[in-house]
Design a protein that fits this description.
The complex is a heterodimer. In chain A, strands 2, 4, 5, 6, 9, 10 and 11 form a seven-stranded mixed beta sheet that branches. Chain A has no helices and eleven strands. Chain A is globular, with a radius of gyration of 13 Å. By secondary structure, chain A is an all-beta fold. In chain A, 0% of the residues lie in helices and 52% in strands. Chain B is mostly beta strands. In chain B, strand 7 and strand 8 form a beta hairpin. Chain B starts with a strand and ends with a strand. Classes of the chains: A mainly beta, B mainly beta.
Chain lengths: 116, 112
């Protein structure tokens, strides 16, 4: 158990809908990362938050957004869903998420999103 | 853009054999590397890491080798067990960035 909690484990929805994925980082970790994993693209970095502020942005679509709350949990919002958004979405956390600190990331078990 | 890549998508070995999983990276500014193991239905799990000022690092049954000259990383698993069956990812951290870039992954299949 990595200590990172993600809910829900599975999500089935229809095209055009909006969903929210939730993540609680390990105790003491201030930084949260969201990754998308699909069969053809592997693990793709979406976005990183540190102590409530956006720190880094990757290949995140404009239809997707995230935030980190004062209690440090994070939510990833996916809207106007398309079939191609079906994937595993992982949350990870690290202690500071600072540059040049060479921190390892600890991953949750993921949310499997199926868009029908 | 530059990315981390893997040579072999699937590696099949017998129980007890030593396994070697390879990874090539192209960004010379990468200064930190991690190997992750992902079992079915689970998230990536940290195995071992290495900084660019090192060539080799050993853990329990695992060794990571880093060759900066040819930008190559390998994970060696000694006495491979069926429980080692999983997808293995290498990931790199580029100096000055706070995120990890992952390779595509290698599936390791261990037969009893």
């Amino acid at each position: 158990d990595s200590g990172v909690t993600q809910t829900p484990k599975h999500l089935i929805t229809a095209t055009g809908q909006r969903v929210t994925l939730r993540c609680s980082p390990r105790s003491g970790d201030l930084s949260v990362y969201w990754y998308q994993q699909s069969l053809d693209q592997g693990l793709q970095f979406l976005i990183q938050y540190y102590n409530g502020e956006e720190r880094a942005k990757g290949n995140i679509l404009e239809r997707f957004s995230a935030q980190q709350f004062p209690d440090l949990h994070s939510e990833l919002n996916l809207s106007s869903l398309e079939l191609g958004d079906s994937a595993l979405y992982f949350c990870a956390s690290s202690q500071t998420g600072a540059r040049a600190t060479n921190e390892k990331l600890f991953f949750g078990s993921g949310t499997q999103l199926s868009v029908l | 853009g530059e990315s981390v890549g893997l040579h072999l998508p699937t590696l099949s070995v017998q129980e007890g054999d030593n396994s070697i999983i390879n990874c090539a990276y192209s960004n010379s500014a990468s200064d930190y590397f991690i190997w992750y193991k992902q079992e079915s239905g689970k998230g990536p799990q940290f195995i071992i890491d290495i900084r660019s000022n090192m060539d080799k690092r050993q853990g329990q049954r695992v060794t990571v080798l880093l060759n900066k000259t040819v930008k190559h990383l390998s994970l060696q698993i000694a006495a491979t067990q069926p429980g080692d069956s999983a997808v293995y990812f290498c990931a790199e951290n580029i100096r000055g960035y706070s995120t990890l870039t992952f390779g595509k992954g290698t599936m390791l299949l261990v037969s009893p």
